[in-house]
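Appendix C: a fully annotated inverse folding record. The material below is reproduced so that readers can follow the format used throughout the book. The structure is listed first as tokens, followed by the designed sequence.
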């Protein structure tokens, strides 16, 4: 494992622990050259379906992209990194359960939109404003009315 401090390629594992229902291993490492410590994470790599973009291109699933989008939507809100990770885990599970070899990014976006209000309502509004690409304030207000109507129906 390459050291993030000095780029030396040899390190030793000092400690290993399983986390998150034993699906991830966290390893504490020490660089054999500079002796600085760092952590690495090992997770099961699932065979994820290809994503079909709006323009028809196919692209491999990249967890980091959805995490980045959610972090942006949750910026300055009381949503922890572990909550975002759990949210993305659920989306990945949905992709696995779907069983298809290809899934449209539109479908993934809809799954995110369905589940996001339970994570944080402000994050939902932020995500929706980017995802839905509103052309004007009226479109945005219509989406809010639909959202508020659905929320009132749940209470």
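Designed amino acids, in order:
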């Amino acid at each position: 494992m390459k050291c993030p401090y000095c780029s030396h390629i040899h390190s030793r594992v000092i400690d290993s622990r399983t986390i998150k229902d034993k699906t991830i291993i966290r390893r504490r490492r020490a660089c054999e050259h500079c002796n600085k410590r760092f952590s690495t994470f090992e997770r099961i790599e699932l065979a994820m379906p290809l994503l079909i973009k709006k323009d028809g291109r196919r692209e491999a699933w990249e967890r980091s992209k959805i995490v980045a989008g959610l972090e942006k939507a949750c910026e300055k809100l009381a949503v922890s990194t572990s909550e975002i990770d759990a949210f993305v885990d659920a989306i990945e599970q949905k992709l696995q359960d779907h069983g298809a070899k290809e899934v449209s990014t539109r479908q993934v976006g809809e799954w995110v939109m369905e589940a996001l209000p339970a994570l944080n309502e402000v994050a939902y509004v932020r995500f929706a404003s980017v995802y839905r690409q509103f052309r004007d304030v009226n479109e945005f207000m219509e989406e809010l009315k639909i959202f508020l109507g659905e929320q009132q129906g749940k209470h």
